[in-house]
Amino acid sequence: MQTRYTEDFQEIRRLGKGGFGRVYECKHKLDESTYAVKKIPSPDQERAEYLREVKILAALRHPSVIRYYQVYFFCSVCKYLARPKAYTL
């Protein structure tokens, strides 16, 4: 299934995993920038909780916290998209 996420990004490799999901190194297909994408399984009933977190992340600016860029909701999966400053390959 083609989604906005799969149209925009190519997954390179998995960077890590935790209790809430997995993080992947991805390359944007148009601007060729590297991003860290966090994929979180999200049942529909939890969507409001994730949206509250997304709003907090969108407003947060701190040198020790990875910057949030956007979120995708589809196929019951929440995807956080971040382009961390300190992330180097």
Summary of the model, kept short:
The chain is built from two helices and five strands. With 89 residues, the protein is α+β, with helices and mostly antiparallel strands.
Number of domains as seen in the coordinates: 1
What is the CATH architecture descriptor? Answer: 2-Layer Sandwich
* SSE ordering: HEEEHEE
Q: Major sheet: size, sense and barrel closure? A: 5 strands, antiparallel
At the third CATH level, what is the topology name?
Phosphorylase Kinase, domain 1
Corresponding CATH superfamily: Phosphorylase Kinase, domain 1
Gyration radius, rounded? 13 Å
Q: Using the coordinates above, name the CATH class.
A: Alpha Beta
Mean pLDDT: 77
Range of helix content: 10-25%
Quote the beta fraction.
35-45%
Give your account of this protein's structure.
One of its GO terms (molecular function) is ATP binding. ATP binds at residue 39. Residues 9-89 form the Protein kinase domain. Keywords: ATP-binding, Kinase, Nucleotide-binding, Transferase. The protein has 89 residues and is an alpha+beta fold. It has one domain (4-82): Phosphorylase Kinase, domain 1. 20% of the residues lie in helices and 42% in strands. It is built from 2 helices and 5 strands; from the N terminus they run H-E-E-E-H-E-E. It has helices spanning 4-8, 47-59, and strands at 9-17, 22-28, 34-41, 68-74, 77-82. It has a 5-stranded antiparallel beta sheet. A hairpin with a 2-residue loop joins strand 4 and strand 5 (77-82). It is globular. The N and C termini lie far apart (29 Å). The relative contact order is 0.22.
